[in-house]
């Protein structure tokens, strides 16, 4: 495949993924909103056709996303058996999820009801798959950290392991709550009384808060690495968004009760439905900003950043879906099913992005170390005689190291030869200034 053909395919994947994933986020938002409002509005005539449409949208976009990611991640899969196994497992797992969702919709069309146990199985499968994928992602991060000692990679290890344990802990509480609803759910079934202050909400809220804090910190560090490419104005604007969003996500226990006390039930549930998607969009903005900044210089990492942004957006949004009252039809279920898709997106895109940043830092460290080792020689012989040769040799060493890293991981650095040379010149100037003092 020619470079031009490969670039065109990446551009097409970038544009198509942006449109489809934005549609998926919109679908999830409507799904969660209807699930929450079902406690107030009850059943309506077009509910089942709308639910079927959401299932179709979810199935198509999930299939397209998994196929596109696997295609763009072939180099990594060839070199990393864990990535290859997760990718293949997710490819087959999606068919099981889609088949069960189709069976559920068929049951509503034929019997005018569905089995609550099937909803419990679907939620359990989605949460279990998500937890396993995050656990395997954390294992990849700790392996890389032990080999390269990069703090950002270590921080993402902590984030992913916290999320994995949080999801495992929430499964039994969710299953217990759904056990209180009728075994067979229909439009005539009584809706169980819902209490927003139940233990599940508190556990999930606190654990989500801890995970969110770690996510905001790690995202800020990642954004800082691309400060020059993003530009100062955009960088500080995004940092403000991160700060405001972090404060907003931490104020859940304050804002939600306030809205409940001052407004009616419809306003309250509308507010809670949009909390997740707004936090998700805010967390996606830094990654989308980086993606735009890298679009011309490093298209593959730009695509990974795009996927990361949507993955976090989908994950946070899916985490806000609650269907413990098992509405008819089960609005909110499609949003929860998106959780394992977001975890797979993060497994491939976040891992590749974090490793790429680690490689960039490693290349810069090689340049700085090489110049420092030659500092005494430069002072004895003179900068003028050695400068050009040393610059050329140091950049070549760095490029060889970058190629070696790519051969090992299948992940490309975002730093090109011109940027390495510019950084080498900056380090060399620092050594000159130091020698004069």
UniProtKB/TrEMBL annotation:
Q: Alphabetically list the UniProt keywords.
A: Membrane, Transmembrane, Transmembrane helix
* Transmembrane regions: 12-34, 46-66, 86-106, 118-139, 151-174, 203-223, 235-256, 268-289, 301-323, 329-351
Transmembrane helix as a keyword? yes
| Keyword set includes Cell cycle | no
Source superkingdom: Archaea
Q: What is this protein called?
A: Uncharacterized protein
| Annotated organism of origin | Candidatus Nitrosocosmicus arcticus
